[in-house]
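Quick one:
INPUT:
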């Protein structure tokens, strides 16, 4: 059973009961999407940020820094990207760990490798791709995502753009067991609750704006829009799909069913995967949250590097898979 089914019922009740909107109209679809996704995303963010905060209370910051900030910085990028794969977070909920890495001194390039890999690649998406398209497609997806994450981090690291990161730190830090001091569960929960509340207070307005844009696209952009304008014979199909994916918000597992549907309608697989990667790794809500911790110039650099990698991957898929 879908754990968000009660939320869907509530969104339907507000849309069609309280607001009395006619079903299957563009306005109703947009409003319903906005209500459902707003509640769902804030629930997910709260739960995941709280869980990440609890986990962080067990992780010695020095140990994480030593692992990711090795003498061979490329190893740090690879390890950060691999760590991103095993953390099934969406782009917005990966940001607390991203901030945590910066707090303990992990190089900026390695943190970006994690930030790209975490939402773009996860085990659920891998299993779904394997079931729908076979192991070759699933393997190419993982390898291409890893390469994008690693290279993006390396390039950003070489650009020396640390001055573009805002002086943003959290004051509610917690001691870990690294010092041999036993931390009570009550203290861990208090820290996690405060950390979660602090994050939500700082980003809620940006999340609402991002979801609002996504709701408008969901309600007013026809389902066959991509299929019509993103056919395999169109040279601009991949970059167009990438640009369209940016205002939307989802995780890889949530967007894969749409990838399957678009593929069935004749959209090239590389084009749909570029769309999926853009939705998960370059979402507008993510940019809005990141704006709290870095300057706009760095966000554009990050988006440009990752976007080029995604577009290249889309063309590669379309070339390999005829």
């Amino acid at each position: 059973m879908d754990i968000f089914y009660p939320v869907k019922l509530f969104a339907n009740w507000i849309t069609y009961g309280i607001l009395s909107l006619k079903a299957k109209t563009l306005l109703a679809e947009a409003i319903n999407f906005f209500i459902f996704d707003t509640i769902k995303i804030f629930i997910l963010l709260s739960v995941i940020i709280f869980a990440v905060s609890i986990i962080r209370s067990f992780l010695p910051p020095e140990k994480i820094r030593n692992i990711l900030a090795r003498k061979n910085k490329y190893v740090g990028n690879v390890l950060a990207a691999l760590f991103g794969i095993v953390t099934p977070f969406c782009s917005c909920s990966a940001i607390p760990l991203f901030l945590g890495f910066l707090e303990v001194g992990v190089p900026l390039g390695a943190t970006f490798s994690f930030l790209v890999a975490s939402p773009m690649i996860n085990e659920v998406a891998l299993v779904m791709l394997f079931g729908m398209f076979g192991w070759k497609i699933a393997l190419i997806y993982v390898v291409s995502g890893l390469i994008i994450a690693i290279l993006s981090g390396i390039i950003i690291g070489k650009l020396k753009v640390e001055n573009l990161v805002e002086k943003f730190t959290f004051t509610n830090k917690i001691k870990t067991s690294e010092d041999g001091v036993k931390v009570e569960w009550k203290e861990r929960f208090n820290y996690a609750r405060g950390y979660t509340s602090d994050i939500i207070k700082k980003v809620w307005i940006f999340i609402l704006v991002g979801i609002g844009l996504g709701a408008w696209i969901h309600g007013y952009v026809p389902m066959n829009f991509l299929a019509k304008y993103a056919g395999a014979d169109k040279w601009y199909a991949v970059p167009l799909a990438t640009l369209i994916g940016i205002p939307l918000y989802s995780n890889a597992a949530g967007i894969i069913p749409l990838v399957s549907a678009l593929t069935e309608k004749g959209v090239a697989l590389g084009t749909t995967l570029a769309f999926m990667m853009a939705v998960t790794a370059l979402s507008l809500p993510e940019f809005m949250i990141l704006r709290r911790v870095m300057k706009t110039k760095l966000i554009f650099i990050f988006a440009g590097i990752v976007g080029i990698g995604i577009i290249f991957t889309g063309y590669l898929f379309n070339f390999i898979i005829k």
